[in-house]
Design brief:
Blueprint (H helix, E strand, L loop, with lengths): L1 E5 L17 E6 L19 E2 L3 E2 H11 L4 E6 L3 H8 L8 E7 L19 E6 L2 E3 L3 H11 L3 E11 L3 E6 L2 E7 L2 E14 H4 L10 H11 L3 E5 L4 E3 L3 H13 L1 H4 L4
Length: 259
Amino acid sequence: MYTTSRIAERPVRHVATSAPLCKEAIILAGGKGLRLRPYTTLIPKPLVPIGDRYSVLEVVLRQLSAQGFARAIVTIGHLGQLVQAYAGDGSQWGIEIVYMSEESPLGTMGPVLPALDMLPEHFVVMNADVLTNLRYDDLLNAHVLSGAALTVAAQQREHRVEFGVLDVTDRRITGFSEKPVLTYRVNMGIYAVSRQALERYQSGLPWGFDDLILDLLQRGERAATYDFEGYWLDIGRPDDYDQANREFELLREEFLPNG
């Protein structure tokens, strides 16, 4: 189901742990980016340009390298040869890259399972189409200290309902709220995971984050959040992409302090 292409190497920190972590990440870059068309008709979504000189993938790799990550496993599928040609062995950013080719779609967590034997006990998994100034090393350290099987980077969002909301039981009104504000946390598509939590699942089959989190909850295993208040944008649609380009130029130092 997978083929592997290995290519070079290299190894800073933030939240303290009892021993130095081997910091590695899996970047999920195999999707077709259908919602982002026409930008992704000829270019894979991780390579769409941000600002005047970077791709989304390059921003992520530069961030990981600056935070002490030694290696990134990049899963590729649609137009994967372009991703591999662009990023190469990662040496230009001071990080080793290993490529894994996804021959058929495996969801958000399915691509991780074939790579388990190559990974340290704790590692980061992330989508390749996220623009954020989150500290991946802090996320990983917080995960290790928590003892959770899975830690999900989460951001609080608010939604103002434009109508008066009725609480109804058996057609009887039991309460009323005028244009309430709903507050909730959303999954940022960035996770810290413990390898042991994934070893029970079968490799080579489609497996999503939703499947994983629901199974962990059913088993009574601990899943935690890493609450993040900084910048985060999921570049899923053309409007998101346009927003990312506008804001990247204004906040470049937030994303790439040494870039």
